[in-house]
C-alpha cells in the first residue's frame, strides 16, 4: 500500500515535534550546523545508511560545516507523507550524536 499524502494541518502538527524543520514548497527541510567539515561529511554517511535501511531518500547538500536535507515522497507525486517524518526523526537522532544544531 502506497503512503498517503499528509494534509497541511497534519504536516504542521508533525513539524511542531521537530524543531528546526520547516515546510519548503512541497518538501520538509532542515539545515544542520556542525563543528567541522569532516563532522558534516561523516553525518552524510550516517544519513545515507539510514536512508538505505528505510528505502526512502532525501536530497542532501554538504557545505563547509553544514548539511542541508530536504525530502518528500516521490511515489505519491512529491507530496509529504509519514515516510518523510520517519526519516526526519531518524536524522534528528543522528544529528544529536554528531553535535549538530
In whole angstroms, the N-to-C terminal distance is: 35 Å
- Oligomerization category of the chains in this entry: single chain
Major sheet description:
4 strands, antiparallel
Share in β-strands: 15-25%
Structural class: alpha+beta
The count of helical stretches stands at 3
Q: Mean of residue pLDDT?
A: 97
**What general form does the structure show?**
globular
Give the strand tally: 4
Give me the strand/helix succession.
HEEHEEH
Give the helix level as a range of percent.
Answer: 40-55%
- What are the segments in which pLDDT stays under 50 over at least 5 consecutive residues? none
Instruction: Provide the gyration radius in Å.
Output: 13 Å
The largest sheet has its strands arranged as: 1-2-4-3
Would you write up a description of this structure?
- This protein is an alpha+beta fold and 101 residues long.
- Helices cover 43% and strands 20% of the residues.
- The protein is globular, with a radius of gyration of 13 Å.
- The longest helix is centred in the middle third of the chain and has 18 residues, at 37-54.
- The model has no long low-confidence stretch (mean pLDDT 97).
- Helix 2 packs antiparallel against helix 3.
Attribute tags:
101 residues, alpha+beta, four-stranded antiparallel β-sheet, 43% helix, globular
Task: Please give a quick description of this structure.
By secondary structure, the chain is of the alpha+beta class. It has helices at 8-16, 37-54, 82-97, and strands at residues 22-24, 27-33, 59-62, 66-71.
Amino acid at each position: 500500500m502506497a503512503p498517503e499524502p499528509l494534509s497541511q494541518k497534519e504536516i504542521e502538527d508533525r513539524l511542531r515535534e521537530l524543531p528546526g524543520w520547516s515546510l519548503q514548497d512541497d518538501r520538509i527541510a532542515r539545515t544542520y550546523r556542525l563543528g567541522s567539515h569532516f563532522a558534516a561529511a561523516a553525518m552524510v554517511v550516517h544519513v545515507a545508511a539510514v536512508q538505505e535501511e528505510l528505502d526512502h531518500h532525501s536530497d542532501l547538500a554538504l557545505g563547509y560545516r553544514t548539511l542541508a536535507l530536504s525530502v518528500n515522497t516521490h511515489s505519491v507525486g512529491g507530496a509529504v507523507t509519514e515516510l518523510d517524518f520517519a526519516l526526519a526523526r531518524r536524522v534528528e537522532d543522528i544529528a544529536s550524536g554528531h553535535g549538530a544544531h
